[in-house]
Amino acid sequence: MSVAKLPADITRTDRQMADGRTIRYYDTKGQRRQAQDQRPAEAQPQIGELRYDALVGEWVAVASHRQNRIFLPPKELCPLCPTSENPGELLTEIPESDFEVVVFDNRGPSFRPPVGDFELPEALSTQTAAGESAGKCEVICFAADHGKSLKDLAPSQVRVILEAWKDRVRELSKESYIAHIAPFENRGEEVGVTLTHPHGQIYSYPFLPPRVEKMLAAAQEHKDRTGRVLLDDVVAREIKDGERIVARNNHWIAFVPYAARYPFEIHVAPLKPVADLAELDEVASAAFPEIALEVLNRLDGVFGIEMAYIATWHQAPVRVGRDVMRLHWQITSVRRQPGKLKYLAGSESAMGAFIMDLKPEQSATQLREVKL
């Protein structure tokens, strides 16, 4: 067991699970984490393959063990709820009977730490040999209450979640085999959620994902041409135009981007730009819960229903582009009307060319007009 102090009077306690994985508790009330994982030890899956798709120049991870992962269990069988103190009841991934925020290594990871040294395969072509899908996949549970969503939490709880994200980025960035870190949350069956307990994931890749490569290339081109940082100029334009701003406080701004791809898409950026989550200072961190909760409640208030969404932190890669890439939180919902979704069909899925049938200014207006 190891214990560490974090900002905002948060204590991180690390424990080992029955199968050797690590679980990290993030607490604010001086809890002592001593519960043992009572489940029998199970062998962890072997590392998967990393294959190179020469047609598009992208890496594909093959993790066949994920076919058998749990799919939408009822609440009484939820593996992300606290373990019950009653003998004979379900033993879950979290041995304690309560928790604030926990992060643990995924039981069926798409990427896992390599054994020994790791390097991406070179000589990229149709003959590139398969490599190991090195990396890390972690689960972050936002709350013990199965029935809550991120938007329902107290600001103090959201702060603990933010500090957990920051802590994981700091630690994972030290691993030589990790090139990019992406904390994200999926909410709603429409976007592929397999567990309904409030939680997110943290994927750490051994390569730059395709969207990150494109964003990095655009940011570098902008810096070479103008001498300025691209996201800084994007935020300056949104402030100047004004009509797509959804919410704002002294340290963060939320807006619908000028060229949004989804019916409801919101970007949340710190007004003091930083490269990644780990660089957020105390002032910006303390101000984040307010705008995060406002944005998520506005999203659910548009139609008066829970909106399925994907919320992803975009940030600079671990070792490149840190002078041109900037942190921001992107929330996208496929819901366009109460009974209608935006499906990624031919143009979007096959060609990667998005077509929007709702002007970003319209969705920004709908979000602003929600009565909180």
Description:
This protein folds into 2 domains: 2-207, HIT family, subunit A, CATH 3.30.428; 212-368, HIT-like (HIT family, subunit A, 2-Layer Sandwich), CATH 3.30.428. The mean pLDDT is 95. A 12-stranded antiparallel sheet has the order 1-2-3-6-8-10-9-14-15-13-12-11, sandwiched between helices. A 3-stranded antiparallel sheet has the order 5-4-7, with no helix packed on it. Helix 1 (155-172) crosses helix 4. It is built from 6 helices and 17 strands. The protein has helices spanning 155-172, 210-226, 230-241, 282-301, 346-351, 360-368; strands at 2-6, 10-16, 22-27, 49-53, 58-62, 101-105, 131-132, 136-141, 180-187, 199-205, 245-248, 252-255, 264-270, 309-314, 328-333, 335-337, 340-341. A hairpin with a 4-residue loop joins strand 4 (49-53) and strand 5. The protein has 372 residues and is of the alpha+beta class. The termini are far apart.
Core attributes:
2 domains; 17 strands; alpha+beta; about 20% helix; about 375 residues; HIT family, subunit A; twelve-stranded antiparallel beta sheet; globular; three-stranded antiparallel beta sheet
Layout of helices and strands, plus pairs?
Blueprint: E1 2-6, E2 10-16, E3 22-27, E4 49-53, E5 58-62, E6 101-105, E7 131-132, E8 136-141, H1 155-172, E9 180-187, E10 199-205, H2 210-226, H3 230-241, E11 245-248, E12 252-255, E13 264-270, H4 282-301, E14 309-314, E15 328-333, E16 335-337, E17 340-341, H5 346-351, H6 360-368
Antiparallel strand pairs: 1-2, 2-3, 3-6, 4-5, 4-7, 6-8, 8-10, 9-10, 9-14, 11-12, 12-13, 13-15, 14-15, 16-17
Helix pairs in contact: 1-4
